Amino acid sequence: MINEINLPDISAEYLLNYLYPDQTEQWQAECAGTFYRNYSPDILSVEKDNATVRLARDGFLQLLPQGIIAPDDALKGKNFEQKYEQLKKKEELLKDLFKPIDSLNFRFRLHIEKEIAQLSSNKISLLLNRYFNFNLEEEKNPYIRETAPLLLVISHLRADFTFLHTLLKNLFGCPVEMTTGRYTWDEGYEYSQPAVFYYLMIPNLTNNAYNELKQTIDPFIDFIREWFIPFDTHCSISIKHPDCPFVLGENLTLDYNTKTDTFINPTY
């Protein structure tokens, strides 16, 4: 089972590279200090308009001795409020002074995170090629490319029909109906095999759109059968128009917008 992601533990570099991959050299970093890190995520706030990110990290100013900002007796004596305001103004001026250093350091870390992500991607390709004889770099089918990294944990996912149901919903962004049953030809029910049926409910496809989508999905279906389905289990993945009864005279696409109350038959 895949562990849930703890959002506060995700680094700012990872999130910003993922959300804004083209803004690496534009970010301005404001470091609020690690005091905030005890009870908040790495990113405290993001101002997209001026490309400023406020971080729960120590900046260059926090690494300097406290005496540079104020000596130990700076607030002693009279005029406490006035002295405090002067110290706050001094601190803000120093933050502005060191902000370019913090920003350059943060951009450097953004570049490192990008390199790590690239190396990780290459490692997945290497592992798939070495252990599964699968060349991810040469694969053109978008659905297979999205699913192929799961081969690294295929021993836990094979025959997990519920997981496959969720995968199809997220991959195609549409409702997916699933039924299970038995599959046989002429030998009789006593010789039947397990069967699972998935129906991608995609409405209002023209005949050409349906054929184009089916041509793209067919290689993906073969991939799913090869890796995710046990050899003795029949698997069918079909594209269907939801709630589209047969109406004489209307344009029909075979196996798509024909009568939907009879096509689901888990045993045949």
Secondary-structure blueprint:
Blueprint: H1 12-19, E1 28-31, E2 43-47, E3 52-55, H2 60-63, H3 80-132, H4 142-147, H5 154-157, H6 161-172, E4 176-183, E5 193-201, H7 207-227, E6 234-240
Parallel strand pairs: 1-3, 5-6
Antiparallel strand pairs: 2-3, 4-5
Helix pairs in contact: 1-3
Brief summary:
By secondary structure, the protein is an alpha/beta fold.
Description:
The chain has 268 residues and is an alpha/beta fold. It is 40% helix and 14% strand. The protein has 7 helices and 6 strands. Helix 7 links the parallel strand 5 and strand 6. The longest helix has 53 residues. The chain starts with 11 loop residues before the first helix and ends in a 28-residue tail after the last strand. The C terminus is likely disordered.
Extended strand count? 6
Helix content: 40-55%
Query: What sequence of helices (H) and strands (E) makes up the elements?
Result: HEEEHHHHHEEHE
Low-confidence stretches: 260-268
Main sheet summary:
3 strands, mixed
Q: Nearest-angstrom radius of gyration?
A: 29 Å
- What's the tally of helices? 7
Average pLDDT: 82
Going across the biggest sheet, name each strand in turn: 1-3-2
Shape: elongated
Structural class: alpha/beta
Cα end-to-end separation: 34 Å
Question: What percentage of amino acids are in beta strands?
Answer: 5-15%
Keywords:
single chain, 268 residues, alpha/beta, three-stranded mixed β-sheet, 7 helices, disordered C terminus
